[in-house]
Specification:
It is a single chain. By secondary structure, this protein is an alpha/beta fold. It has ten helices and 14 strands. The protein has a six-stranded parallel β-sheet with strand order 3-2-1-12-13-14, sandwiched between helices. A four-stranded parallel β-sheet has the order 6-5-9-10, sandwiched between helices. It has a two-stranded antiparallel ribbon with strand order 4-11. It is globular, with a radius of gyration of 21 Å. The model has no long low-confidence stretch (mean pLDDT 90).
Length: 358
């Protein structure tokens, strides 16, 4: 059997107030470190989106959350690409000056980064995004006019786009709001993230192409107590550049050879995943549940606390618990090398003789 490249799935669930990865691209240092150990790292936009900041390297695969769930379930594969034609959608509710800021951000990525941005369109009705918070503290939301979003995506696809960026007008928050203040100081839940996930899920589920979202908001007043983890969101007028960079190389989704003619032989499937890294309280997600049934190495990171509390033991999942992502990188290095982590400790338990227990 041919050996495949060592492949890690890295997940930080969206809108759960994760201590690491719950802010603007603050999990990028972690995923960059893992990418030095793994040959392929599959992760999702809110890990790699840092507003004006991003890190694009060949072995990082930018996969939207619904598509990642389908991949983990074995329903879809991932086809690496050299580049995508990225079209983008602007919500009709965005004010003209804020629309222009986003158009100029897209133009800048074409001129400075060489991205292939194909066309853009404006929805035929305001998307009417609403933000909600669950009793658990996680964020979610609603889109009042989803059909308008899908019509805009269809127009871009028919014009040749094979990846879609969406910019929706989100409600501006009161700077004095306690939840927003906590988030800006590095202690709260991203109130936008849950609604963002709904928008991208809808496009990916309907059209099976890469999609990611950037909210349109007016800048907040300067805050001298701003947390470094929240700072990337306040560097400019848009969160758009990192989304366009991520989508420019996002893998396309493919279905099984039995259903798709001219099947790409270099596509990536869930059966090739070697390990998954997840916050210790976030093991209830769809991708985690699917991959746990395949007997892969699961790593639970205790330092990355979230608003959810679903540890691996509650679901009967065998996982290696580590305190930090730094320790997780070590476990991955040992796993890839085929080294038992027991051999790296000062004490090694003795072998058991099964026949003596009969």
């Amino acid at each position: 059997m041919q050996k495949h490249p060592y492949t890690v799935v890295f997940i930080v669930p969206t809108g759960t107030g994760a201590a690491i990865g719950g802010y603007a691209g603050d999990a990028m240092p972690v995923v960059r470190a893992i990418a030095q150990v793994a040959e392929r790292v599959i992760t999702h936009p809110n890990v790699l989106n840092g507003a004006q900041l991003y890190w694009n390297q060949p072995n990082l695969f930018y996969v939207e959350g619904y598509g990642l769930d389908q991949f983990a379930a074995g329903a879809w594969g991932l086809q690496p690409v050299r580049r995508n034609r990225v079209g983008f959608i602007l919500d009709r509710a965005i004010e003209s000056d804020l629309q222009l800021r986003h158009i100029q951000a897209a133009q800048a990525t074409r001129a400075s980064l060489g991205l292939h941005i194909s066309d853009y369109t404006i929805t035929d009705a305001p998307l009417e995004v609403e933000l909600q918070t669950a009793t658990s503290g996680t964020s979610w939301g609603n889109v009042g006019n989803p059909d308008s979003l899908l019509r805009a995506a269809q127009d871009l696809i028919e014009a040749g786009a094979n990846a879609i960026a969406v910019v929706a007008r989100f409600p501006d928050e009161d700077p004095a709001n306690a939840t927003l203040q906590q988030y800006r100081q590095g202690h709260g839940v991203d109130a936008l993230a849950g609604a963002e996930a709904i928008i991208s899920h809808l496009v990916v589920r309907t059209f099976r192409i890469p999609c990611a979202h950037a909210p349109a908001l007016y800048p907040l007043p300067l805050d001298p107590n701003l947390s470094p983890r929240a700072a990337a969101e306040e560097l400019g007028y848009t969160f758009f550049p990192s989304v366009l960079v991520g989508l420019s190389r996002a893998p396309q989704f493919v279905i099984s050879p039995a259903e798709q003619p001219n099947f790409p032989p270099d596509s990536i499937w869930a059966s090739q995943v070697d390990a998954i890294v997840v916050p210790e309280g976030a093991f209830g997600g769809s991708a985690m549940l699917s991959l746990s049934q395949m007997g892969i190495q699961a790593i639970a990171v205790e330092d990355n606390q979230t608003a959810t509390n679903v540890p691996p033991e509650a679901l009967g999942i065998a996982a290696t618990r580590v305190r930090s992502y730094l320790e997780a990188v070590g476990v991955l290095a040992a796993h890839r090398a085929g080294i038992s982590t027991e051999a790296l400790a000062p004490e090694i338990p003795p072998l058991c003789c099964l026949s003596e227990n009969r």
